[in-house]
Amino acid sequence: MAELHIIDHPMIQHKLSIMRDKNTGSKDFRELLREIAMLMGYELTRDFPLEDYPIETPICGMTGKRISGKKMAVVPILRAGLGMVDGLITLVPASRVGHIGLYRDPETHLPVTYYCKLPPDIKNRTTIVVDPMLATGGSASDAISKIKEEGVSDIRLMCLVGAPEGVKKIQEDHPDVPIYLAALDEKLNEKAYIVPGLGDAGDRIFGTIYTIY
User: Fold this and answer.
1) How far from 27 is each of 66, 161, 179, 199, 201, CA to CA, in Å?
2) What sign has the CA pseudo-torsion 152, 41, 46, 9?
3) Could you tell me how far CA 160 lies from the centroid of its own chain?
4) Nearest to 40 by CA among 130, 171, 119
5) pLDDT tens digits, one per residue of 74-115
6) pTM value?
7) Chain-centre distance of CA 32, in angstroms?
8) Which end of the chain has fewer beta carbons closer than 10 Å to its terminal beta carbon, N or C?
9) CA nearest 72: which of 99, 96, 48, 42?
10) Which residues, 6 or more positions from 172, have their beta carbon under 8 angstroms from its beta carbon?
11) Which tens digit of pLDDT belongs to each residue from 28-77?
């Protein structure tokens, strides 16, 4: 079963509470999301291996440390996932960025990919799929399946807030993909919004009309 990691660092929880507040505007919401993504990135990259290499400080020579052999890709699920990209590439500037856009066919309810552009060497990279909300888990599961079709074996899912239903979906569909959340909320409501959640993340990021349920 996919491992679930709740990153409950005090600074993350503090910033997340401000994001949840319905009175927080788009500017602050975007900045906080970027900051939390970077902070969460520290935990996602904790297991990256290090290697020794020689350096010269202003005082003397020494053996330094650098990341060994790990290349990273960040793949946001459009559109809300875009808000988490800057935080991760600030942490790992050499990361490549792909994009996946999905929607549900209203009649068949099957996923339709309307956009997919991935780095050509993505199968050789640790791939972080990002989306602020893990609600039903459908879009995240479909995006992970699409990435697996490219031969990627090291995939990690990073979301800000998740619902138990979404976690269960990923664990059932992709037991090899660890899930990283800043908070696991109570449930989904009848409109499939996370409760208590933070509303529609995409609308709050980009300043379009949204409704708090």
Assistant:
1) 35, 19, 27, 16, 13
2) negative
3) 7
4) 130
5) 999 998 999 999 999 999 999 999 999 987 666 765 677 899
6) 0.91
7) 14
8) N
9) 96
10) none
11) 999 999 999 999 999 999 999 999 999 999 999 999 999 887 799 999 99
The number of helix segments (H) and strand segments (E) in the chain equals: 6, 13
Q: How far lies 178's CA from each of 1, 76, 114, 170, in Å? A: 9, 16, 26, 9
Q: Clarify whether 86 is annotated catalytic.
A: no
| Residue of 30, 142, 200, 204 marked active site | 200
User: What is the total residue count of the chain?
Assistant: 213
Amino acid identity of 65?
K
Beta strands in 7-91 (DSSP E): 50-56, 61-67, 72-76
Q: Identify the three-state secondary structure at position 72.
A: strand
Considering 28, 154, 173, 203, which one is annotated as catalytic? 203
Q: SS3 of 82, please?
A: helix
Using left for φ > 0, alpha for ψ between -120 and 50, and beta otherwise, residue 98 falls in beta
Annotated active-site residue 34? The verdict is no
CA distance readout (Å), 84 to 28, 130, 192: 14, 7, 22
Strands (E) in 2-90, as ranges, are 4-6, 50-56, 61-67, 72-76
**Please, what is the angle between helix 10-20 and helix 26-44, to 10°?**
150
Whole-angstrom distance between the N-terminal and C-terminal Cα of the chain?
Answer: 32
Question: Of these residues, 104, 136, 154, 173, which one is catalytic?
Answer: 104
